[in-house]
Design brief:
Layout (H helix, E strand, L loop, with lengths): L12 E4 L8 H7 L5 E4 L4 H6 L6 E5 L5 E6 L3 H18 L1
Length: 94
Amino acid sequence: MVTEYADSGLVLVAAGFDWGQPYSCSDWASTFNLSYSILDDADYPLYKAFGTGYVPHNIIIDHNMVVRHSDSGFSLSTFTNLISTILAEIKAEG
């Protein structure tokens, strides 16, 4: 997904805490061959701002720092369609 939208300016970032169960933050990225950054949310600022108790929790923030989407759960097709829709809206807003 990261490379699919690279030309549109999309930046994918993950965050997590309780690393070491069973992977550290850097181990998680290397174990799963991730090509995006993972933030260590050890003090829970992101979780406190957006967390609902459900994992995963997906947040899409636009270039103006406006939260365009915040919801728990994950469906690749739903998320891909959502990203495409939001990018189209941003492009139309010009």
